[in-house]
Write a structure and sequence with these properties.
This protein is mainly beta and about 325 residues long. The chain folds into two domains: about 50-120, Immunoglobulin-like, CATH 2.60.40; about 130-305, Lamin Tail domain (Immunoglobulin-like). It is built from two helices and 21 strands. It has helices at about 5-25, 255-270; strands at about 50-55, 60-65, 70, 80-85, 85-90, 100-110, 115-120, 130-135, 145-150, 155, 160-165, 170-175, 180, 185-190, 205, 205-210, 225-230, 235-245, 275, 285-290, 300-305. The protein has a seven-stranded mixed sheet with strand order 15-16-14-9-8-20-21, with no helix packed on it. A five-stranded mixed sheet has the order 12-11-17-18-19, with helices on one face. Strands 1-2-5-4 form a four-stranded antiparallel sheet, with no helix packed on it. Strand 15 and strand 16 (about 205-210) form a beta hairpin. The longest helix has 25 residues, at about 5-25. The radius of gyration is 33 Å and the shape is globular. The termini are far apart.
């Protein structure tokens, strides 16, 4: 046989054998093994900032949702140390009550997930006394604007205290109080107006009138008022009230937003049960706290006054509607 013909036949035969083996191999089920998620069970969530507060005049305490570490020198020029879920930041100087400063940095959890942030922190005021919401209207007119009255329970200073229309993280209006000394049984009347009426004095005997400098105010029928000791994130709540006209929608709160805000106050522990019924209130029928009543954080602490019965700046001794 010709040598060249032999080589060609040998090559063809070899390729044929290889093709047969390949086809036989492809016909067999191939075991690729179990697919494994290498991230299963691993923490992939970044730490969440929960609250910011002043531990002293120059030390800020920042709380996270899980234990964290300081990331590099990200808190410079301030010094910072981590202790479990908390980071303590020492500022270069004291932060006076009623004044704010920005603090930023980055932390990481023990799985390496990082979070960067920048927050506003307010100066520490240890002199803020116990104070409760005492009377309010929500359906004001030009002649009788909406007001919220606060009752002071002890001597002190209210610098940095804040009153929110609704809740701290989702508010329509707020008032941050300045450097004011107060006495037990003083009444602080917040006017939700752009300026005080001409016939209203800022200071009277036992009464302080404060203008919110806003054209916004409490929601007419469904809403909340929240009093906090500072505007800082996660600040301590001093008092709160929830009111509603018991609408047919969203469990009586009219809108989903109003319901969620009310639930926030309920979760905080500063309100229980049904809201104060605002249905019959008007610009002069205020919602008033029962005189000398116990603060039980529920609707039985409150009543709607008779027409023209609002008593802002005076004791709550009006008859009920």
């Amino acid at each position: 046989m010709n040598r060249k013909v032999f080589i060609v036949l040998a090559v063809i035969l070899g390729l044929s054998v290889a093709l047969v083996l390949l086809l036989l191999g492809c016909s067999q089920e191939v075991d690729v093994g179990e697919i494994v998620n290498v991230f299963s069970g691993k923490d992939c969530q970044s730490p969440v900032l929960v609250s910011v507060s002043t531990a002293s005049s120059s030390v800020v305490r920042i709380e996270f949702s899980e234990p964290v570490r300081i990331y590099g020198s990200s808190f410079s020029p301030f010094t910072a140390r981590a202790d479990g879920k908390f980071v303590y930041v020492t500022m270069n100087s004291s932060l006076p009550p009623g004044q704010s400063s920005s603090i930023g940095g980055r932390v990481k959890d023990y799985s390496g997930n990082t979070t960067g942030f920048s927050v506003e922190v307010w100066g520490h005021n240890p002199l803020i006394p116990p104070i409760v919401i005492n009377e309010f209207t929500t359906k004001g007119t030009e002649r009788s604007p909406d007001r919220t009255e606060l009752l002071v329970k002890a001597n002190g200073n209210i610098n940095g205290m804040v009153l929110y229309c609704v809740i701290p993280d989702d508010n329509d209006a707020k008032v941050v109080f300045g450097d004011l000394n107060v006495k037990e049984n003083d009444l602080i009347v917040v006017w939700w107006t752009e300026k005080l009426p001409d016939n209203v004095l800022e200071y009277g005997i036992g009464t302080i009138n404060i203008c919110a400098s806003t054209n916004s105010g409490p929601s007419s029928n469904n809403g909340t008022l929240v009093l906090c000791n500072t505007p800082s994130l996660g600040a301590g709540i001093m008092d709160a009230v929830v009111y509603s006209n018991f609408s047919a929608s969203h469990d009586g709160y009219g809108t989903r937003g109003a319901k969620e805000r009310a639930q926030w106050v309920l979760t905080s522990g500063f309100w229980e049960g049904d809201a104060v019924d605002s249905t019959t209130s008007t610009a002069t029928r205020s919602m008033s706290r029962v005189l000398e009543g116990r603060d039980s954080n529920c609707c039985k602490d409150w009543y709607v006054t008779v027409t023209g019965g609002s008593t802002f700046g005076l004791p709550n001794d009006s008859e009920a509607y």
